[in-house]
Write a structure and sequence with these properties.
- By secondary structure, the protein is mainly alpha-helical.
- Helix content is 60%, strand content 3%.
- The chain has 3 domains: 1-50, no CATH class; 68-210, Butyryl-CoA Dehydrogenase, subunit A, domain 3 (Up-down Bundle); 216-349.
- It has a two-stranded antiparallel sheet with strand order 1-2.
- Helix 1 (58-92) packs antiparallel against helix 2 and helix 2 crosses helix 10.
- It binds flavin-adenine dinucleotide.
- Flavin-adenine dinucleotide is lined by residues 21, 24, 29, 209, 212-216, 218-219, 222.
């Protein structure tokens, strides 16, 4: 607002141009210029700003808005990964090519590609990323409700604290692995996937936005390791570990007990490595590999949600329930062990990146 209390002219914000995007071409993305001299409200070059709320509370307001937006980005990334997976699944069930490695007879007709184990591997991976990401987004959406509607103040506070820790993961994990599901969908379609005759290349392009907007993955990593897991004396991380171990305890006496034990060990190690990172005595060292920490924590959380889904199938044997069990097993066998490589790096307080000066890049 101007000194004289008037609102200035209407055109203080200038539409400089449109951005030509890699994906999301169905929506317009504008380049706006604020107060760079194109207009002179009140006789001075600039733009008119309006204070919303109280002074010096802007970042708090921004985070209030951003937190739900971050979960929304994660949900969108999971959904885009999901549709890529479903298109690839349908294609794999009809496209014929090649024969099983055990069949050397050139006279045998080619099989549908879904019969090749490598294609099933890609579909199972995509399913585990898409449905794992969706589970994470839906769980966080429930916490958004519960922090307002839970019956007791203790439960509302609990939902709030859990959400604080999970929000950077809910934003970043589906944004990282949803595009991988779409990348695998292109791979399942082979050369056809690289053409515009099929929608999977578009899903990939669209989904590539999600690790960028509403805070890049690097920023989410700094938020998680730099703020969320140390806030309130580490209460958020402790609550997450407690919530996960409540699930693993329910696996006792089921076929999932072994996977649950691995998850328990990984959760305990994540806590120990967090303490080691913060014992470094230098935040630059602690935070140097914050993105690796974010990825490791994300895999632990999604492994937990896959265990939840596996336990929820109970004794049901439909293809849907068997599919859930297969994807849970896939995630625990193929993905969760990768966390230990990242935890090894973090535990050693690795300085490779920190000590590489710009001139060596
Ligand atoms: C299609 C599209 C739509 C968008 N829509 C909106 C919108 O509606 N409203 C809106 O406000 N914005 C919007 N944005 C902007 C978006 O939020 C930003 O692009 C995003 O937050 C990243 O900021 P930046 O582009 O300035 O990148 P930069 O901040 O320049 O980041 C570049 C790189 O540097 C890294 N980096 C930056 N700072 C740090 C740091 N402190 N520590 C470690 N690494 C760092 C980042 O992780 C990234 O890898 C949109 C962007 C796109 C592409």
């Amino acid at each position: 607002m101007r000194d004289d209390g008037s609102l200035g002219e209407r055109n203080d914000v200038v539409l400089t141009g449109l951005n030509h995007k890699m994906g999301y071409r169905g929506t317009t993305n504008t380049l706006l210029t604020f107060g760079e001299g194109a207009h002179t409200p009140g006789g001075r070059a600039g733009a008119v700003g309006f204070l919303v709320g109280e002074e010096h509370r802007g970042l708090t307001y921004m985070f209030h808005m951003m937190n739900e937006a971050r979960i929304g980005v994660g949900a969108g990334a999971a959904a885009l990964g999901y549709t890529g997976y479903l298109h690839a699944l349908e294609y794999a069930r009809t496209r014929t090519q090649g024969r099983p490695p055990t069949d050397r007879d050139p006279g045998t007709p080619p099989v549908r590609i879904v019969e090749h184990t490598d294609v099933r591997r890609m579909l199972l991976a995509a399913k585990s990323y898409a449905e794992g990401g969706l589970a994470l987004a839906l769980y966080c959406a429930r916490l958004v409700d519960e922090e307002l509607t839970a019956g007791s103040s203790t439960d509302r506070a609990r939902a709030h604290l859990l959400l604080e820790v999970l929000t950077p993961i809910a934003k970043s994990w589906p944004s990282q692995w949803g595009p991988v599901a779409d990348d695998l969908a292109i791979q399942v379609l082979g050369g056809a996937g690289y053409t515009r005759d099929h929608p999977v290349e578009q899903f990939y392009r669209d989904n590539r936005l999600n690790p960028i907007h509403e805070g890049t993955a690097g920023i989410q990593g700094l938020d998680l390791l730099g703020r969320k897991v140390v806030m309130e004396g580490g209460a958020g991380l402790a609550l997450l570990a407690e919530t996960i171990t409540a699930t693993t305890a329910r696996a006792a006496g089921t076929e999932w007990v072994g996977l649950a034990a691995d998850l328990d060990a990984t959760v305990a190690r994540l806590g120990a490595v967090t303490a080691t990172l913060w014992s470094a005595g230098d935040p630059a060292v602690t935070l140097a590999n914050a993105t690796a920490y974010l990825e490791a924590a994300g895999h632990v959380v999604v492994a937990w949600l896959w265990l939840e889904q596996a336990l929820a199938t109970g004794a049901q044997t439909s293809d849907f329930h068997q599919g859930k069990r297969a994807a849970a097993r896939y995630f625990h066998r193929y993905e969760l062990p990768k966390v230990h490589t990242q935890l090894d790096l973090l535990e050693s307080l690795d300085r490779t990146v920190l000590d590489t000066p710009e001139t060596w890049l």
